[in-house]
Amino acid sequence: MHGGDGPAGSGRDDAVPDLSTLWLRVFLEVDRCGSFTVAARTLGWTQSAVSRQVSALEAALGGAPLFDRLPRGVRLTEAGRTLVPHARAVAESLHGAVRELAALREATGGRLRFGAFASADAALVPWALAAFRARRPGVRVTREEGLTAGLLERLTAGHLDLAVVSTTGRAPLEAYTLHHLLDESLYVAVPARHPLADRPGPVRLRQLAGADWVSGSARPEGTLLDAALRAGFRPRIAHVVAEWTAKQGYVAAGLGVALVPALAAASVRPDVTLLPVRDEDAPARAVYAATVRGRSPSPAAKAFIGVLREAAQAVGATARPADHAPGGQGP
User: Fold this and answer.
1) I need a labelling partner for 203 at 20 to 30 A (CA). Which of 58, 60, 180, 228 fits?
2) Would you say the pTM of this structure is higher than 0.90?
3) Could you give the CA distance from residue 9 to residue 94 in angstroms, rounded to a whole number?
4) What is the pLDDT of residue 103?
């Protein structure tokens, strides 16, 4: 529908009539008031202007009169009574569209689909999600977990609105707009009775070159254990364990050691000790909220990025090696 002066006939019986929503608004106002004069006063128009709008609507709908003009006021004809529910439905649909668009604009409605890598789900994401839901309860939120590369694929395909990703995994990031959240250090998780557990200062990864390792993958490439390759040795992966809690169980039992990112450090069990890794062996990895470059993020996604940044500051203490002194029992 648009505000033209008449129908743009298409010659087809099933064509959608070219109606102005203004005509329908005036029609409903005349029906409500029962008078062209009163409707004109309510709308702030002249009576002749109101009459012209109704006449244009009648012409667009085939010419049948919508009102009987009475000595005092007007009365709907059968055609007018037929049109009323349809005109009201159009008006309510447009009002609904305006309300929904306003909710999207203000991020009080709509949806948010996001994904995050596993260790971000340990502290960063729960904090942000709780704060976001408290502030914007009308937004429908769905979340999924995955590796950075897979999350970026989902993002590109349009299945996610944003993804919390890291620089681990060698995934190409050029196609994305990256909203920096934090840089997190790495720790080596060892059993509390491990010989290195009571040594002061950060460790070098090469000190653990002969150890058995617990990892989420049978190969170090594209995982946290890439750091071992950069340190000059290929780690011996003795156990492939995907879930963080289970990895800690293997470490506590003396079955191997594991790399732990700072975001997961807060949940370390008391019989596991975290040893900070020297920066030159494992420089801090960056964590980002990623959106697809060239696509406008939804207002809800923009709002969630802001909350993620607040969460990153709140959990930032967890990302500092000083918080996990060697020889301690975790945080």
Assistant:
1) 180
2) no
3) 24
4) 63
Distance set, CA 195 to CA 198, 200, 315, 326, 327 (Å) = 7, 12, 30, 11, 10
* 199 Cβ neighbours under 8 A, 6+ residues apart: 275, 326, 327
Residue ranges in 157-298 assigned as alpha helix (H): 226-230, 244-252
Res. 317 pLDDT band, cuts 50 70 90: very low
Tens of pLDDT along 219-258?
Answer: 988 788 888 988 899 999 999 998 888 999 999 999 999 9
% the chain with pLDDT above 90: 53
Q: What are phi and psi of 272, to 5 degrees?
A: -125, 135
Place of tokens 């929503």: 21
Rounded Cα distance between 43 and 327, Å, is 79
What integer pLDDT is reported at residue 322 of this predicted model? 37
First to last CA, the chain: 63
* The pLDDT value given to residue 215: 94
Residue type, 306: G
Taking Cα atoms as reference points, which of 173, 280, 165 lies closest to residue 227?
280
Question: What residues have CB less than 8 Å from 227, skipping those under 6 apart?
Answer: 186, 205, 259, 277, 281, 282
Residue type, 181: L
Take residue 189 and report the two structure tokens written for it. Answer: 């998780």
Residues in the chain: 331
Question: Tokens for 61?
Answer: 């709908």
Own/partner pairs, 292-299, CB within 8 angstroms, 24+ separation: 292/155, 292/156, 292/175, 292/176, 292/177, 293/174, 293/175, 293/176, 293/177, 297/161, 297/162, 298/104, 298/107, 298/110, 298/111, 298/112, 298/161, 299/104, 299/105, 299/106, 299/107, 299/110
Among 2-6, 27-31, 289-293, 313-317, where is mean pLDDT lowest?
A: 2-6
What pLDDT is recorded for position 173?
85
Nearest to 123 by CA among 242, 216, 260, 224: 260
Q: What share of the chain is helix, strand, coil (3-state, %, to 5)?
A: 40, 20, 40
